Amino acid sequence: QAKAAGRHALCFFDPAMQARVMERASLEADLRQALADGLLRLFYQVQVDGEGQITGVEALLRWEHPERGLVSPGVFIPVAEENGLIVPMGFWVLETACRQLAKWAATPATEHLTMAVNVSRDQFRAPDFVDRLERILAATGARPERLKLELTETLFLEDSEDTRYKMQRLKSLGIGFALDDFGTGYSSLAYLKRLPLDQLKIDQSFVRDLLDDPTDATIVTTIITLARSLELEVIAEGVESEAHRHWLAAQGCRAFQGYLFGRPVSVEELSLTAHPRPVAGLEAPR
Ligand code: C2E
Ligand code: MG
Ligand code: MG
Ligand code: MG
Asked: Are 223 and 202 in contact (CB under 8 A)?
């Protein structure tokens, strides 16, 4: 009977689990090939200031899979982090982003733009991370002052002396640091004091419901206040509506990223000349 077979299957052979294992294995093999074959793409999402002017972009990785289409980093970054591919992949991202940054720097209209790049814990932990980034900067001609590395709290959980040392070396070159997904990790706030951070990024999970959920609203307000008292910049991610933007601006947030301003797109589709859109009711005095 089906039930008996089902029970048997559960004990000795779980087809669903095997499918997942095979899916994983094929994803892993495909990913290795994708890096070699140049099927990874960088998309860019704009970041804007309080006046709605574009100040820079965040580089976001995409994988152009021959059969699956565009694969989201939410699917393949965890795989790459587990099998170590994240290290070579991350350097490909840094090099591609720096090459783009140098291109923008050569044109007056885009000269001011900053580039935020996500760096995984294991990539930052690579012993030669600083040297390799220095070589990428030299080779591409990108200005370190325009580059911002987005790190997450997982990096600060252990071995923080090495992290601090590397951050200080990079900082002395002019590179900035944003703390991504702030508030979602196991944060001890002590590292905010010890590490040379420039910016806190309010995670979109807090931004999404802040208009309806008083707890999220309180968390966001607290992060903005914390950033101000520590003299850090603060940027809200996942800003999807004018109402969100207005609320955040009223709390003192002056930097935004989200679908309201633009989705992540290829460099060809990227519009860096969007008209500034001041927050209604909060226009700068003339
Ligand atoms: P993240 O760094 O927190 O990036 C923000 C994510 O939020 C992006 O997802 C972006 O597309 C999405 N997003 C932006 N605005 C909105 C919005 O208004 N609404 C909603 N619902 N989502 C919005 P994406 O591109 O799928 O990337 C997911 C994560 O993958 C990133 O989160 C980052 O942790 C990781 N990732 C992406 N590219 C790289 C990379 O080059 N290196 C590493 N190490 N990680 C990367
Ligand atoms: Mg990020
Ligand atoms: Mg984030
Ligand atoms: Mg995130």
From this structure: yes
